[in-house]
Design brief:
By secondary structure, the protein is of the alpha/beta class. The chain has two domains: 204 residues, L-asparaginase, N-terminal domain (Rossmann fold), CATH 3.40.50.1170; 100 residues, Rossmann fold, CATH 3.40.50. The protein is 23% helix and 17% strand. It is built from eight helices and 14 strands. An eight-stranded mixed beta sheet has the order 2-1-3-4-5-6-9-10, sandwiched between helices. Helix 1 crosses helix 2 and helix 2 runs parallel beside helix 7.
């Protein structure tokens, strides 16, 4: 099931109102929470307590004095480049029950090879026992990188992006989400107290970067250091390797005033796949239909438009830049033209990505 695009008519179940664990000495009785319908198991993990049994203290029983031993703190790794921006300064004090470890980032991710390296270093941190990771990233390409990592990340660990030009409060909020968000959250972006899904988030400013999710709205907020969700995270959608040797060329053509299709044909001649973005309806695409149809017979073509797609192509609601990211990864993992179109159809339907054809050459 995909995330609803309007406020949910159902109350948020208690298990979605995640909170950071408190030490036994600081614990206070929780106020009663009104009952709600049970949430889907894949997206509503309970937060392990700081004491007693759990992933870090499984099988631990009462000690000789009858008191339960305190569980080891949960690890969140922060990948941050060296710099003078506020968010790349000192890591804020972690919440109770959480240990934060800072590791250096290799540098700004500006290529798909860089995304692959980021996925590897994050994977090593999760293998070292981290329950989540925070990635400090330049705001300009943050939304694309977060979506690419979402597609490559197959585990349950929470990966949270925060803009390098943000504030220390953003970093503290990101650590809280990485420590206590839902297990199937995947990749998220935290900015100005809001939590955004990597699939929907986009940058809304350049001089003073801000983020929003125009088509879906934020997943929730971080209030007083505690993540609070107001809607279900979108279903996870991942692309599995191995990757081909030569990175594919995926073009992005934006339909503009006076477009007659000649530039589209020129671009498509040097592409392995093409995204065509049009804000208008069928009238704006009428002059391009012959060029789009010719291209779609040779390579995968995906249309971001309210108009119906020409024969042999697919349509998507993804932001065009993110549609390009998805097509690149699909082609790089050996999906042919038909499989790429099927994968985009599966994304729109909320299904899993079809596997690459067995005959694909890697």
């Amino acid at each position: 099931m995909t995330a609803p695009l309007s406020p949910p008519p159902w109350p948020i179940p208690p298990s979605w109102q995640v909170a950071l664990p408190a030490r036994a000495a600081d614990a206070e009785p929780s106020p009663p929470v009104p009952p709600g319908p049970a949430a889907p198991p894949a997206t509503t993990p309970s937060v392990p307590p700081a004491t007693g049994t759990g992933p870090a203290g499984e099988g631990a029983g009462d000690g000789p004095s009858g008191a339960r031993p305190e569980a080891p703190p949960r690890l969140v790794v922060v990948f941050a480049p060296e710099g003078s921006a506020p968010v790349t300064g000192a890591v804020p004090s972690p919440p109770n029950g959480v240990r934060v470890e800072r590791r250096p980032a290799a540098g700004p991710v500006s290529t798909f090879a860089g995304v692959g390296e980021l996925a590897r270093v994050v994977g090593r941190a999760i293998g070292d026992g981290a329950i989540g990771a925070v990635i400090v990233h330049p705001a300009e390409t943050l939304a694309e990188t977060a979506w690419a990592l979402e597609l490559l990340h197959e585990g349950d660990a929470r990966l949270v992006f925060v803009a390098a030009s943000g504030s220390p409060a953003d970093l503290a909020d990101a650590i809280a989400v990485a420590a206590a968000g839902p297990q199937r959250l995947g990749c998220a972006v935290v900015a100005r107290g809001e939590i955004h899904a990597a699939r929907h988030v986009t940058a809304t400013g350049i001089a003073a970067p801000a983020f929003a999710s125009p088509d879906a709205g934020p997943l929730g907020q971080v209030i007083g250091g505690i993540p609070r969700l107001v809607r279900r995270p979108p279903e996870r959608f991942t692309v599995r390797g191995p990757f081909a040797g030569r990175p594919p060329r995926v073009g992005l053509h934006v339909v503009a005033l006076g477009d007659d299709g000649r530039l589209l044909r020129t671009l498509a001649d040097d592409c392995d796949g093409l995204i065509v973005a049009s804000r208008a309806g069928q009238a704006a695409l009428a002059a391009l239909l012959p060029a789009v149809s010719e291209t779609a017979a040779r390579i995968p073509v995906v249309l971001h438009s309210p108009a119906a797609p020409p024969a042999g192509s697919a349509v998507t609601r993804l932001d065009p830049l993110k549609a390009r990211v998805l097509m690149h990864l699909l082609l790089d993992t050996g999906h042919d033209r038909a499989a790429v179109l099927a994968a985009f159809a599966a994304l729109e339907a909320g299904a899993a990505v079809p596997p690459a054809p067995p005959s694909a050459a890697f």
